[in-house]
Amino acid sequence: MTPVTLSPARRRTCGGSAQLTISGCRTVEGARHGVSFGLKAAIAIITAVLAAAALAQASQVFAPLAAAIFIIAVVWPIQRRLQRWMPKLAALAITIVITVTVCFALASLAAWGFGRVGHSLLADLARYQAFYEATVAWLDGHGVSVAALWAEHFNVGWLLRATQYVTGRLNTTLTFWVIALVYVMLGLLEVDDIRRRIQRLENRTAAAVLLDGGAATAAKLRWFLMVRTLMSAVTGLLVGAFAWITGLPFALEWGVIAFVLNYIPFIGPFIATLFPTLLAMTQFESWPAVFGLFVCLNIIQFAVGSYIEPRVAGNMLSISPLLVLFAIFFWTFLWGLFGTFIGVPITLAMLTFCAAHPSSRWIADLLGGPDEVKPGKS
């Protein structure tokens, strides 16, 4: 191939040689581009790992902040409307009272449902003891010994440690929400100021990404909470009605538990079907009846979560199911139970900001949900 004379800029790219074949120059450029891309990918992976480690180690700082940002995004329209008719501090007081009341009502509802079922289980320990002994005898008869394993791991020491853990988590949860509430109060007072500061930024691209991404994220988070609440209510009603029709005790309580746990995608609905099935094992004497109850409860959860909810939410909340499951496990690993609830909203916010900038929009396109679900179509 005949050598060609390269321009000074192209010559610097190709190693400084004035006489070089075009294919040779392309080979050099491709090699350097590959090295540059690999270096950027390695830096991105290292940065992500370090950021995850920092979030895990400083969870007591970042987790309440994330909760506060989520709450601010949800309740800001209330604060904004009230500020038009009264002073900012008075609007803030009313907004905080409404927020605390709603959160306390949901927590009380969940505590009531789990408490009622838990007290009944404790009062009916004799029946469960008989069921346990029959199960152990059946397993021993088939060559599976569980008595030694149970005695080794589930003893008085284990119960004491579990009680201490639950008590510690309750204290931590109270501190967590107090800190989050302080963040919410201060954040609601500074929303307008932060928006004006962003608008004054000299980097107009960064300002546009922050303003557009923030507004879109807040709208999506409000829509996410509204859709999730509506679908949780539908799931709770269907589960409670089914439990009442089949004669399963605590039909109302199971509906409440299904309503609360449905806020956790995938994991919550499975737990909401597993607990009633465990109760049915001691209430129904037919194993086909127990299995049928488990299948019907899962059909309810699947119909609401996989058919009705995507058509109500539309593409606005479209996320890859694989990413949703990964987000639940990842944020649960970092922040515990709170990460289980907030993991999907955090991931939704990240994808929204990625979509707000051309250089990262491909991430949102890649990790979005199925294309066939369109808003307003069933």
What topology emerges from the helices and strands here?
Blueprint: E1 4-5, H1 8-13, E2 19-20, H2 22-57, H3 59-83, H4 88-123, H5 125-141, H6 147-153, H7 156-199, H8 204-246, H9 251-261, H10 267-283, H11 287-313, H12 321-335, H13 337-355, H14 361-367
Antiparallel strand pairs: 1-2
Helix pairs in contact: 2-3, 3-4, 3-7, 3-8, 3-13, 4-7, 4-9, 8-9, 8-11, 8-13, 9-10, 10-11, 12-13, 13-14
The tally of structural domains comes to: 2
State Rg. 28 Å
**Strand order of the main beta sheet, please?**
1-2
The structure class reads mainly alpha
What's the tally of helices?
A: 14
β-strand amount = under 5%
Number of strands: 2
What is the residue-mean pLDDT, rounded to a whole number? 78
Low-confidence stretches: 371-378
Summarize the biggest pleated sheet.
2 strands, antiparallel
Q: Could you spell the SSE succession in H and E letters?
A: EHEHHHHHHHHHHHHH
C-alpha termini separation: 60 Å
Fraction of residues in H or I helices: over 70%
Q: Given the C-alpha coordinates, what overall shape results?
A: globular
What report would you give on this structure?
The protein is mainly α and 378 residues long. It has two domains: 141 residues, no CATH class; 172 residues, no CATH class. Helices cover 82% and strands 1% of the residues. It contains 14 helices and two strands, in the order βαβααααααααααααα. It has a two-stranded antiparallel sheet. α12 crosses α13. The radius of gyration is 28 Å and the shape is globular. The termini are far apart. The C terminus is likely disordered.
